[in-house]
Amino acid sequence: MGVPQIGCPCATCRSSDPRDRRSRTAALIQDAETTILIDTPPELRLQLLAAHVGDVDAVLYTHLHADHVHGIDDLRSFSNQRTAPLPLYGPREAIDHIRHRFGYIFDPGVVPLAGTSKPRLEAMAIDAGTPIQVGEIPVLPLGFRHGHETVFGYRFGRIAYVTDIEAIPDELDVHLRDLDMLVLSALWWRPHPTHLSIPEAIAIAERLGATRTILTHLTHETSHAELEARLPVGVEAGFDGMTIER
Question: Where are the alpha helices (DSSP H) in the chain?
């Protein structure tokens, strides 16, 4: 629900530490020529403005939940600049759901009135374990469970981004070895039926042995400073606007 959470008087929601202001989760993967956006959360416009992003080459969706999808209309700022539709990729059930939920975007029968526009997007389902290429960036989608849904994590060379998962099955470990950086979701210290807890995420980080593991999708149940003080070496808390260069 983001931090501050609506109506909550807790210490994290009242914190003056800017790292405790957490919008819904998204990320950018960039090289010199290509920019990939992961997910379109409700705060997407503000996130893109803060990051000075003027264009993206593709969007990768992790799954269909509202906190990862509902900023999709802000993609019209990019599609209005393009001659071809902006490509979207993700698990089949997420792509099908997005096409249905945002029918005004994907229904060719919905034609904008003169002087108006709608996002021009091309939504394409991809398969877990089958690599794709976006510009110069290789993308390996990996499938995980998240309640009743499939969620995709993505590996880009020696970087992986994995959010909203219940566990990482042992058979997928081979695809998450030899990483310089693993971005991994961690909700809070206690168990949750469809998300990793912070202790579970730490255990996975230790198992996989990435040079750096950065926790994301955090909640108001722990402040950034408190979490950083309790994390082991090699594991750190992410924050809005965090930028890592390689």
Answer: 44-50, 66-69, 76-79, 92-101, 103-106, 198-208, 224-230
